[in-house]
Amino acid sequence: MGWLKPKVSDAKRLAIDPPKPQEGRHGIAIAVCVKDEARYIEEWVRFHRAVGIRHFYIYDNGSTDGTPAILRDLLDADTLTIIPWAGRMIDASTEATLNGQVIVFAHAILNFGGSYRWMAFIDVDEFLLPKEGQTVEQALAAVGDFPNVSLPWHMFATSGHEKRPDGPLTLNYTMRGADPMTHKENVSNFKCIVDPCEVTEVTVHQFQTRGFGDLTANDAGKRFTRRARKSPDFYSNRFLQLNHYYTKSREELMAKLARGWSYDASPTKYRDKVLSIVKSLEEDLVEDRAMIDFIARNRINLGQ
Q1: Which residues pair with 190 in a beta bridge?
Q2: Dihedral of CA 247/253/256/257: which sign?
Q3: N or C: which end of the chain has fewer CB within 10 A?
Q4: How many other CB atoms are found less than 10 A from the CB of residue 286?
Q5: Could you tell me which of 50, 233, 25, 232 has the C-alpha nearest to residue 147?
Q6: What is the pLDDT of residue 262?
Q7: Residues whose CB falls within 8 Å of the CB of residue 101, separated by 6 or more in sequence, listed in order
Q8: Rounded mean pLDDT of 67-73?
Q9: Cβ(295)–Cβ(133) under 8 Å?
């Protein structure tokens, strides 16, 4: 039998030694990968500044549409670090594609994590919506000192928009998948907020910590194992909700599929996966206006 090359999925976990906490560490930082996000990045930054994010670590994958310039106009050096991060990495011995986001997240923890109480690892189509309090830190109060929080996706589809509507993204999309804990393939997942000084293993959607292994908590502080968090009992959005604006308009979805995804080795596989997710979402939708109500109540300026 010949040598079997590992699948791409074999290269999605990294073990690390946690950084040492710096004196006076505090607040929340976000680490995120971006590429050509000029159309929506201002709204995303303005919203997250309004909910108390202290610093943005932007890993820029070769943007050519002015995204870095927009970021520098919005944020100063105390709140913004842009790291050039272009290209795809492949293990030379196995030819397995290394997951670029995992490498970014590990890099952010190791190089910057010691300055913060929390780090959030989300994408620029995902928004951290406090349901209690006005900031993400206030919303995390129920978690206490526990270092590993998993937030289920609340997946928003096109909301009937064929073309990009005028105005802010967060005010135009109100229809999401009814069940964030659905077992439909690829529709349910999590993003995490962690104490970076406790992280020992990094993936895109889950982390391990030094004192608690694979235990993770929901926003209400209820703890489950990594696998058990997929059960309906784990679900909570009482304090903090993760809104994932997955498709935007139908026209923008088609453009997204034409571009492909920077960290996927197979454009065809990526397209089929996305279309399957959209079909599953649109089979069962509910209206969710929590974001609209929050923005109005707190008079958040989204810049549009």
Answers
A1: 152
A2: positive
A3: N
A4: 11
A5: 25
A6: 55
A7: 33, 204, 263
A8: 98
A9: no
Residue 55, token pair as written in the block? 């610093």
CA 273/CA 289 separation, integer angstroms = 27
pLDDT tens profile 247-296: 999 999 998 888 776 555 566 788 888 999 999 999 999 999 999 999 99
Tokens 């549009």 appear where? 304
DSSP code at position 213: B
**pLDDT 10s digits, 211-261:** 999 999 999 999 999 999 999 999 999 999 999 999 999 999 998 888 776
pLDDT given for residue 271 in this prediction:
84
Q: Which among 180, 216, 222 is positioned nearest to 198, based on CA atoms? A: 216
**For residue 59, what is the enclosing H or E element?**
strand 53-60
CA–CA separation, 91 vs 98, rounded Å? 7
Domain ranges within the chain, ordered by starting residue: 13-298
Q: What is the CA radius of gyration of the chain?
A: 19
Strand-pair category, 126-130 with 240-245: antiparallel
Distance CA 235, CA 252 (A): 30
The reported pTM is 0.92
Type of residue numbered 220? A
By the 10 Å C-beta count (0-12 exposed, 13-18 middle, 19+ buried), 186 is classed as exposed
